[in-house]
Amino acid sequence: MTILRTHNLTIGYNSKEGRTEVLKGLNLSLNRGEVVCLIGANGKGKSTLLRTLAGTQPSLEGSVDIEGKPLSILSKKDLALMLSIVYTDRTSTGALTVEELTALGRQPHTGFFGHLSKVDRDVVEASMRATGILYKRNSLCAQLSDGERQKAMIAKALAQETPIIFLDEPTAFLDVASKIDTMQLLHDLAVEQNKAVLLSTHDISQALMLADRLWLIDAGQHLEAAPTEDLILSGKLDLLFNSQEIRFDIHSGSFSRQCVGEHSVDIVEGDASTAHWCANAMKRNGIAIDKKSTITIKPIAPNNIIIYINGKMKKTESVGELTHFILRYFKEYETK
Questions:
Q1: CA 300, 304, 305: angle at the middle one, nearest 5?
Q2: Average pLDDT, stretch 84-103?
């Protein structure tokens, strides 16, 4: 079910110097039960788009509808009952306990004085439980790890009981394990609580694994919106960066630099995992992967990698040994 739509939306800024359009002609939709990841290079308008959709920054043209109602006519209270936001900035919540922070999410329901009813307290507890932070309910936020603090902020957003949650770089300060944990949590919440979750992120690998849809702002300042796997297979992730050397590898699901140096090797079929990391080592050292190369690497296993050069065969027992041999060969070749 679609809960948010944009109609020919143009975002940007009006200033003394004139009008600056960041993205224009946007016709987007956000559905309940889905996680959408907004990705793009720095300065491409991710935060501007989030602020515009949240009503904290005016659009230049077009409109945003939430449940069929124009964003422009919604009161602050009505909007707070529809949409919650988790910002990337480290907020000054150190003196609050996790439970007190989570309870702040009930403010749109409790009014100015913030008196919590039994229903409100039950919602606060359920929100902490859903995010896995209930065991820290009496801990000060200042005592939490970055991952725990992020869970507490998400619990606050859940306690607001809105059908839409926006998050601006929610994994920015997290270690790898906490990033995976947070992204999986957001997807679980979207599915289990039928929420529409939109988040901006630079963590492409996690976005590709756990986003149902991607909104990709490319280097040409256009936004592509599609189911994650369809966007990957379309080849449009190559447009993310304004560089002919940075390319997305569909098989590994990652970006890498395409070497165009004078030295190259070919890597033929063998053990797929070993082949991937052989290629990684070659590219890191400026050696291109080229089918026309006179040097062929055949990765049979991690401890059995064969090199064919000028009709001769050499066996190496690790990627490190392979790399050392190839680099030494090219160095000797250049001195001849």
A1: 70
A2: 83
**Contacts of 223 by beta carbon, 8 Å cutoff, 6+ apart:** 23, 26, 28, 215, 216, 217
pTM for this predicted structure: 0.84
Give residues with Cβ within 8 angstroms of 228, minimum separation 6: 37, 207, 208, 211, 212, 213, 214
Q: By C-alpha distance, which of 318, 253, 254 is closest to 281?
A: 318
pLDDT, tens digit, 9 for 90 and up, residues 186-213: 999 999 999 999 999 988 888 998 999 9
What pLDDT is stored for residue 268 in this prediction?
93
* Whole-number Å distance between alpha carbons of 74 and 66: 9
In degrees, rounded to 5, the angle at the alpha carbon of residue 24 between the alpha carbons of residues 21 and 30 is 130
Question: pLDDT of 221-231, one tens digit each?
Answer: 899 999 999 99
3-state DSSP assignment of residue 141: helix
Q: Is 35 helix (H, G, I), strand (E, B) or coil?
A: strand
Say if residue 282 is exposed, middle or buried (CB neighbours under 10 Å; 0-12, 13-18, 19+): buried
Tell me the C-alpha distance between 210 and 159, whole Å. 23
**Structural tokens at position 24:** 């224009």
What's the confidence (pLDDT) of residue 110? Answer: 86
Euclidean distance between CA atoms 75 and 167, whole angstroms: 21
